[in-house]
Amino acid sequence: MDMHIKELLEKQVKNNMEFQHLFEAIHNKICSFICFQSDNEPIVLTNWVVSTWFFREFLFTPYIHIYSPEPQCGKSTLMKILKFMTYKPKMMQNPSSALYRWIEQDAGTLFIDEIDKLQMDARAELIGMLNVGFEQDGAKVIRMEGTKHTPTEFEVFCPKVFAGIEARKLEEATRTRSIPVALDRKDGTVELRRAFTGRGFKEEFLNEIELPLEHLASEVTDDYNPFWSEDDYYTMLNILASVNPDDRAVDIGSPLLTIASMGSLEWTIKTINAINTLTLSREKNENYKDEFWKLVNEIYEQTTEENIFSKDLAEKINDNLDSQFTQWNRGNGINAKDIAKILSDYYIDSKNVRIGHQVLKGYCWNDLIPVMQKYSTEKIDIKSTLVELPLQQEVFYE
User: Fold this and answer.
1) Residue among 20, 51, 77, 25 nearest 209 (CA)
2) Helix (H) or strand (E) holding 37
3) 99: left (phi > 0), else alpha (psi -120 to 50), else beta?
4) Quick one: what percent of the chain has pLDDT higher than 70?
5) Comparing 79 with 193, which gets the higher pLDDT?
6) Which of the four, 41, 250, 270, 348, has the lowest number of CB atoms within 10 Å?
7) Residue 283 above 60 pLDDT?
8) How many Å apart are CA 255 and CA 47, to the nearest integer?
9) CATH code for 3-284?
10) How far apart (Å, rounded) are the C-alpha atoms in residues 10 and 4?
């Protein structure tokens, strides 16, 4: 990262002590309850918490996608802690189709737990709302209202956080609108606070975080923002775009970077590094597609058949004992349904195929070959996107 980017960031930081104290309080609270896989997640979450109180000041609002490989990794605890600090939180475990009414009338921060367990009909409608609700000027939900069934538009723009098992169980389009927060079971040597809902517990968050955030947010009106201008926001967006090639990551990351610039230069640099690391490593952290196509190509090179059955493709993938797919489905490996889900992202559907005298569900290699040839995703060197911290200055939050 060249010095020009650092100089631009330095010009943008506001060194606002109120924001700096809030960053420290929120960061410390989150880390006292949750054991994260890296320092990047709590940094992003700290800025995101603050951004929920100012979300209408930005063109986009990032979603937070909390996931883990198995239950009891802290997802619900993290959601509970975030709920104590965010703007107008609303927790929903089984969201109804009337969710858009709440957003339209009293938009706040929406929490959805166990999103992976939703029924397909409810899930499809919810995902539709999620995919447009991250953009302030995005599409609206249209519903028929009243006895005359009048088409009515409803706004679905608001901050959202959702949790579930395994990142891949959430649609790819929704994942790209989200900052990934991967959790795992904590090390037995790590001591963390236990979350509960007692009066003293709630007052702790109220006095240290919620009331100061409410005070700062109240200073922003429709006509005046005393903290940052529209030009400041666009400058931070352009800075992030210069070091992050993912356009969607720039959209959802720029509000967090603008918020971070209210603090110190060190905190702002840590934030841009965290955004880049988490968003650019999304495919690296969820690299099943890279590995899937690599294995499929190897299987193809060893076959003389024109088709392959779904079950045989799954078995051959699972034969690679070093593959991550052997750990899928609680150690039972990848199956035909998983393969169908992956290939559906490339508009490839299973069909009845013949091998010898047998006809079963499977795939024609001619349908897979074009994707194998084109699936050469550009590998991004994440280290090249990171900004070095200024020398001889105190590092914020070690």
Assistant:
1) 25
2) none
3) alpha
4) 83
5) 79
6) 348
7) no
8) 9
9) 3.40.50.300
10) 10
Residue whose tokens read 């700062």:
216
What confidence score (pLDDT) does residue 372 get? 83
Tokens representing 242? 């210069």
pLDDT at 365: 94
Phi/psi at 95 (5° precision)? -60, 135
User: Can you tell me which residue has the tokens 């969710």?
Assistant: 99
Two structure tokens written together for 267: 């905190």
Residues 6+ apart with CB under 8 A from 373: none
- Closest by CA to 79, choosing from 104, 118, 115, 107, is 115
pLDDT band at 270 (very low <50, low <70, confident <90, very high): very high
The span from the CA of 313 to the CA of 41, in Å, is 36
CA 80 to CA 112: how far, in whole Å? 11
Find where tokens 């240290």 sit: 208
pTM for the structure as a whole: 0.74
Rounded to whole angstroms, what are the CA distances from 241 to 125, 179, 236, 249, 347?
32, 16, 8, 9, 30
Segments making up each domain of the chain, as ranges: 3-284, 289-374
**Per-residue tokens: 398:** 């070690």
- 254: alpha, beta or left, given left = phi > 0 and alpha = psi -120 to 50? alpha
Closest of 55, 158, 165 to residue 111, by C-alpha: 158
Contact 259, 253 (CB under 8 A): no
CB count within 10 Å of CB 327 equals 12
